[in-house]
């Protein structure tokens, strides 16, 4: 179903289901022979919801059936697991570097099923604000509590839509804009219109004193190339048809969930606003973490941007 300005979702629907897709990739990586990252909570979320399109990533048996129908699906699955593995490792390291530098206030925007509050070794005195839609946060809290998991930092859930006035909700929850913060916006920006992305960073900038850190990823400048859009659309349609056959169910079209629009050069924008920012592309990030750059499938057109305000 195409996006609308004020749409909302359950965890198994629309943008919510993409969080399960990320959890599925993290579970597959965690359970692999030589995992780059370990997320013991990813499988907990998947067990709570049962089978869905995400199962084609996390269940080797279903993945094999999918590959029988669509041979290029196996290469696509491998790339997506590697993508989420290196993405997770990259964000994890920035979080740990920020708190090692003394930051004790963390904001995870579009927290989804990110379990860092439960799995990273947070220093004493760290407060983590998780911002997302109420239904998503509720599913996450209930599921983790049911598994007996306990957060390893002070957790504050902030139910807010990032297209609306989330800074007010964040302040009302106890956020202190005078303190250095570690901000993350992982896997979020492609699901925002370009104008909403600009507003998001204007708000982050206004809430960020000296010593603040930021990590995010976003579509790279080639993401809206007509040729690339066409080839990725064709791949998505083949995957969509094969997935529906394997699962014997109607499958949502994930390509309808994001906004293929020209976007602000975020690294340059941050530099103009007093941040020391840098970017790394998908191929270079795979190489950094020892993963092969595939020749048989296109990489996600993504840049990873990290920044500090001095």
From TrEMBL:
<dbReference type="Pfam" id="PF04072">
    <property type="entry name" value="LCM"/>
</dbReference>
<dbReference type="InterPro" id="IPR011610">
    <property type="entry name" value="SAM_mthyl_Trfase_ML2640-like"/>
</dbReference>
<dbReference type="GO" id="GO:0032259">
    <property type="term" value="P:methylation"/>
</dbReference>
<keyword id="KW-0489">Methyltransferase</keyword>
<comment type="similarity">
    <text>Belongs to the UPF0677 family.</text>
</comment>
<dbReference type="InterPro" id="IPR007213">
    <property type="entry name" value="Ppm1/Ppm2/Tcmp"/>
</dbReference>
<keyword id="KW-0949">S-adenosyl-L-methionine</keyword>
<comment type="function">
    <text>Exhibits S-adenosyl-L-methionine-dependent methyltransferase activity.</text>
</comment>
<dbReference type="InterPro" id="IPR029063">
    <property type="entry name" value="SAM-dependent_MTases_sf"/>
</dbReference>
<protein>
    <recommendedName>
        <fullName>S-adenosyl-L-methionine-dependent methyltransferase</fullName>
        <ecNumber>2.1.1.-</ecNumber>
    </recommendedName>
</protein>
<dbReference type="GO" id="GO:0008168">
    <property type="term" value="F:methyltransferase activity"/>
</dbReference>
<keyword id="KW-0808">Transferase</keyword>
């Amino acid at each position: 179903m195409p996006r609308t300005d004020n749409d909302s979702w359950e965890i198994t629907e629309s943008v919510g289901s993409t969080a399960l897709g990320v959890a599925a990739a993290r579970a597959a990586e965690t359970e692999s022979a030589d995992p780059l990252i370990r997320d013991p909570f990813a499988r907990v979320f998947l067990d709570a919801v049962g089978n869905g399109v995400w199962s084609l990533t996390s269940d080797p048996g279903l993945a094999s059936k999918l590959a029988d129908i669509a041979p290029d699906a196996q290469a696509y699955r491998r790339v997506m697991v590697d993508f989420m593995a290196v993405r997770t490792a990259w964000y994890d390291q920035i979080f740990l570097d920020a708190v090692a530098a003394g930051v004790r206030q963390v904001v995870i925007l579009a927290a989804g099923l990110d379990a860092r509050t439960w799995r990273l070794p947070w220093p004493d005195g760290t407060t983590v604000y998780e911002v997302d839609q109420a239904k998503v946060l509720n599913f996450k809290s209930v599921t983790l509590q049911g598994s007996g998991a306990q957060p390893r930092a002070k957790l504050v859930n902030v139910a807010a839509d990032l297209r609306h006035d989330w800074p007010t909700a964040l302040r009302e929850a106890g956020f202190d804009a005078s303190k250095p913060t570690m901000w993350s916006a992982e896997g979020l920006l492609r699901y925002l219109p370009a104008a909403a992305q600009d507003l998001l960073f204007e708000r982050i900038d206004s809430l960020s004193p000296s010593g603040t850190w930021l990590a995010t990823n976003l579509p790279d400048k080639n993401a809206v190339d007509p040729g690339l859009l066409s080839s990725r659309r064709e791949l998505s349609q083949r995957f969509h048809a094969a997935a529906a056959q394997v699962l014997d169910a109607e499958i949502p079209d994930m390509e309808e969930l994001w906004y293929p629009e020209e976007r602000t050069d975020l690294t340059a924008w941050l530099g103009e606003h007093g941040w020391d920012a840098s970017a790394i592309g998908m191929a270079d990030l795979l190489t950094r973490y020892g993963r092969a750059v595939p020749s048989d499938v296109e990489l996600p057109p993504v840049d990873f941007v990290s920044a500090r305000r001095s």
